[in-house]
Specification:
single chain; 905 residues; alpha/beta; Rossmann fold; Helicase, Ruva Protein, domain 3; 16-stranded parallel β-sheet; five-stranded parallel β-sheet; 33 strands; 36% helix; elongated
Length: 905
Amino acid sequence: MGNICSISLPADRIVSSFWDGTTENANYLRKLPENLVELGTACERLRELRNDVKRMVGIAEREQMQPLDQVQGWLSRVETLETQVAQLIGDGTEEVEKKCLGGCCPRHCRARYKLGKRVARKLKEVDILMSQRPSDVVAERLPSPRLGERPSGGTVGMNSRVGKVWSSLHEEQVGIIGLYGLGGVGKTTLLTQINNAFTKRTHDFDFVIWATVSKTVNLENIQDDIWKKIGFCDDKWKSKSRDEKATSIWRVLSEKRFVLLLDDLWERLDLSDVGVPYQNKKNKIVFTTRSEEVCAQMEADKKIKVECLTWTESWELFRMKLGEDTLDFHPEIPELAQAVAQECCGLPLVLTTMGRAMACKKTPEEWKYAIKVLQSSASKFPGMGDKVFPLLKYSYDCLPTEVSRSCFLYCSLYPEDFQISKFNLIGRWICEGFLDEFDDMEGAQNQGYNIVGTLIHACLLEECDVDYEVKLHDVIRDMALWIACETGKEQDKFLVKAGSKLTEAPEVARWMGPKRISLMNNQIEKLMESPICPNLSTLFLEDNSLKMITDSFFQFMPNLRVLDLSRNTMTELPQGISNLVSLQYLNLSATNIKELPIELKNLGKLKFLLLDSMPQLSSIPEQLISSLSMLQVIDMFDSGISERTVLKDGLLSDDNEALVQELESLKYLHDLGVTITSASAFKRLLSSDKLRSCITDLCLKNFNGSSSFNITSLSNVKRLCDMSISNCGSLEDLEIDWAWEGKQTTEFNYLNSRVSSHYSFHSLVWLRVERCSRLKDLTWLVFTPNLKTLTINDCDQMQEVIGTGKCGESAENGENLSPFVKLQVLELVDLPQLKSIFWKALPFIYLNTIYVDSCPLLKKLPLNANSAKGHRIVIFGQTEWWNELEWEDEATHNAFLPCFVPTEE
């Protein structure tokens, strides 16, 4: 018996346990309906409790508090239990309603028992969760968000730029700031410095948020960047829809002060889609973009252009990337290194790339080779063709149309730093067939100006000192040539050797393939070959030393549309020019050609004929002009051909109106530039309604025999843009007819009304007056509200630009008169009697250049401390003259002291 284990229990405990178990099991069956009702009621109380807790959590989250883990866990368990209970109540209700042998069927009793047991257990689970309900503390407050300093390498020239943006951030009326500029100029670096400045400077913003936008906008990525800074980027956040995320961001930021830094915008970003409240200008949004147009689309309160570095800054950055060891390795390297740095034209991206690439080059020969490569084919320089240019090309790719891209590439035909006339550029685009959106010339010109504006806003073109000229940044030009000559479908279509110091044209074999060739700004003297150019559409030969072109040179250019031979010394055109049957644009300006060949009659498609600044041109074959029936623009401004041209031996020569009649016969004439040498001819020209409506450029030259000329008559030449008055030695006065509309008065209120009326010269933007020895003033300029460039040269008796006496008895009467509102450039040369430009200081909102030479009596400029606010004027002059200038006050003197640039004396 020793191996037998006996257990002894009291009999009453055994019976009691058996009875309790039996009773409990019986209750599972008997109390099922009652328990189901009790479970539903308990679950409803739990649901109410859960809603209370969730509401407390929501309030806490909006106050930037994080829910406790135990609270999140409790809510999760309640939600799970609710699902289970709902299923269980549904099953139980169905079971209770079943009737089978009075409910005593063994099979159904077993199922009812199991269900009753599950209901009883869920009741206990509900009771447990009720007892575990969270306290009133459901979340904890996180530390204030730390301002994140972004990585930033060594920078140059950023302090002043950061200071400008920082001060703008504190302007009450400024809420949105756009930083724009060409690619690689340092916009992201500047934005990084602004972000980091918040970690070092005192401010009262709750959040400083950085988000990168990029070319392909992903709103949810931007929302995630923002939420990481202001919330908790957990699984719950990630599961939200974009609209839900926007709502969450809006709730938080609406109650806070914030700065949002958006890097790399390429198009308008709808801030409301992101969830950013932007109506309150106490909050600040700063973004970077390559496009000024994006600044407008984003409704920026302030636009700040990020400019290239100055030479001093450029050299400092280049040295930093190059390293002093390389710079000091050989005595020739510093000078060569400066030459390389200058090729970068102040663009930080290129300075950094080139500095790093040259850091290991320690012989002069390597540096000289690098300079040669940069000047001839920059894309072959390490890092340029594979890194820099593809990055810059994004701006080109984002241009809105193929036409705008073609127009941009066309600009690369001009040399480095060349100031391109908008009017001439657009004329070439028209003749190339780029601008065919409208049938009429005015519509095509407007389309052209719109494209120029698009390229400027994209920072692919830059405006010059005068806004009717543009230029390409050298690195952007190199990028354009890389696209046009080395990549994609444009490959091998451009041959550009502009400004390359060539003395001979490229070998004939290289002319075969290109569509556009530019050899301008060289020293080529002769063109003696006969190149075969089946594809050639554009040929720039301007500003060479051309003296001779063989007759056969143009023989194989059947598709040539644009030919520029201007600024050459040639005295005649080859007869072979008659082969250019597709030619639409011919520029012969500033050449020594004496006579136009009759062969030009063959150019039946010619639209533009430019003959300005050709003093030697004295004869044109009879009916040559009228035979060019498609002409729309003909310019004889400051040319030997004038209204005094007559028919002589079959040529238009002197003293007849034959030329006027031929011009009148041109059906499509739109723009006309002419030279007038007598009052009678002037009257005849203006008597023609057709020609008067076409005149855009007018040269009054050699007006002798009359001491006065009524300039008021020109007010009816509504489209007059450029005007020159020269060599009028007997002319003492340019009269103003003060009796317009019968009002004989010089009262200034009347004068002011005339300036703004249709009688004034609203279209005139450029004026040159020279060698008019008896002229004393140019008071009529008060009627030129849009004048941009004024040059006065060699007028011995000129005393005032605006004469006080002609405008009224005293200067005080003209207190509100303010001429030169749009003036950008003022040049005054060899005016020994000039004492005054205007009798009081002028605002000069747009003026950027004043050039004064040999004006010894001009002791005061019309400037005060408020003149030229917001931009810098450059004043060129002799040091002695500058030192003797009188100033309105010391503040004015101090304001313009840094503006002076001495000229060689």
